[in-house]
Amino acid sequence: MTDVPDSDIHPIAPEQRAAVLAALDGIERDHDVRIVFACESGSRGWGFSSPDSDYDARFVYVHRRDWYLSVNERTGPGEPQRDVIELPIDDELDVSGWDLRKALRLLSKSNPTLLEWLRSPVVYRQDERLVAGLRELVDRNYSPIATWHHYHRMARGNFRGYLRGERVRTKKYLYVLRPILACLWIEQASGPPPMAFERLLDRLLPDGPLRIAIDALLVKKRSAKEVEDGPRVPEISEFIEAQLRRMEQSPPTLTPGRGHGEQLDEFFRRAIAPA
Asked: Are residues 80 and 151 in the same domain?
């Protein structure tokens, strides 16, 4: 079981938290939007950042009601209204977010990225009432089969791209292990997988030689630079290869999601209604 302090697993330096909050304030001011949820994604959200990992802040925002109701789109004739806000990426900070309408469309398809955001262990800001409603909608629209296929494709693609040699970049092992464990989580009917890697580990691999090997890998990842590599770890490689082979040969029978379009529309209308 994980016994590392949460602040060490998901480290957010005070000055970087302040920088993220300042960036969010600037986005609200410059774009005339309200940010209803903001969290940390990427390696700091997953729980295996290196000392030189950047910060990946992700958010959901909402415009004023009239922005959605205007006849002429505000971005120019014939141009669709943008539903993404992205700040220029620097060496330490990557900040981007989705409009609430886009987020709800993705939620209706059980988009795993959005589902992870709403389960991030690091939350910068949130509208408690609205986010509680979003999480309830996630549960109602959750599609185990769609989410499983997303993580399976991710694990398979990362394995083929990064884990074929005798030396492996440390973080690439984790980029395959995390989606494999997410697939196992889904197969056990545990609901949408969490973002935090330690929660996956504690539920699915609480002890044993494989867990010891993964814990050692995490210690190395959390103390080494992003480019650090090392020799192939037999216990981990064999587990990955066995799980991918099993998934290819016998994919699980899982239920599809059930759409609730009227509930999504009602939620959206309430969210943009004048206060």
From this structure: no
